[in-house]
Amino acid sequence: MSLLVVGSVAFDQIETPFGKTGKIIGGAGSYISLAAAHFSDDVALISVVGEDFPKSFLDRLNTEGVNTKGVEVVKGRKSFFWSGKYHNDMNTRDTLVTELNVLGDFNPVVPKEFRSPDFLMLGNLSPQVQMEVISQIEKRPKLVVLDTMNFWMDMAWDELIAVIRKVDVVTINDEEARQLSGEYSLVKAAQKILDLGPKYLVIKKGEHGALLFNRAKEVFFAPALPLEEVFDPTGAGDSFAGGFLGYLSATRDVSFRNMKRAIIFGSAMASFTVEKFGLERLENLTSNEMDERVQEFIDLVQFDIALV
Ligand code: AMP
Questions:
Q1: pTM higher than 0.85, yes or no?
Q2: Residue with the nearest Cα to atom 18 of ligand 1?
């Protein structure tokens, strides 16, 4: 097993200045696994849905190369539902509804054949669930990546710190990095978070790109592609993580040098996601489009300076 992903598979309802959706399919696990499957044909997803969830979406994930044997379907229960409304700047949003439903008592079970993944992605879920998945892993993966959010810092601080100590890479946004470290400077925040245990930290800054830090105090910055229209930012961070880890698992190289490339592939994946509502853009993404987009990133930051 190359890449094991744990994350929510959900119904979302999204409102942006451009319009409003009905119930559409979302969830961090959906975005991560679809993005990762673009690079790797050996991706498996651990999640839980209710009886109300369309089987056709799980079939669709299978077609895209995501193994859904670890997605539990609970009879007589409803799927996780999340609803959010974006402000005019499209960078900030209010959560309108969070109905945990089956996610509220999710007890993840990693099928036997997925217990020695080379790469493990712990999507944004309760730290207890993330820890439970780690405890079922039989061989230390090459890389364990954890995504989290302010909600868990408020609700389960000690459990979150305990799971952060066990992973190699943490991905969070700038405000969350400040909350987690108590430092305003992102450079100081990064060092404090790395002192907890992880070897690398990715700080996502939305339309302002992403920063990658390591313990040797090296820093890499990737811009976000300046897009004419951001339609729906939901899942951008998850698509970023899926692209990042999908690329690393396909190349099997976890050096800092290769992580810089992975950050660009993650950023490219996020730039696609925000172009349409929900998962629509990720589901129809071709390799050619991906190559062209990565070239745009290269062109965006390449310049020649001769230092004398
Ligand atoms: P992002 O825009 O990257 O924060 O991810 C949005 C996705 O995360 C949506 O598709 C939601 O279904 C999912 N989501 C929102 N809140 C939670 C939560 N508390 N636990 C798990 N998944 C969530």
A1: yes
A2: 125
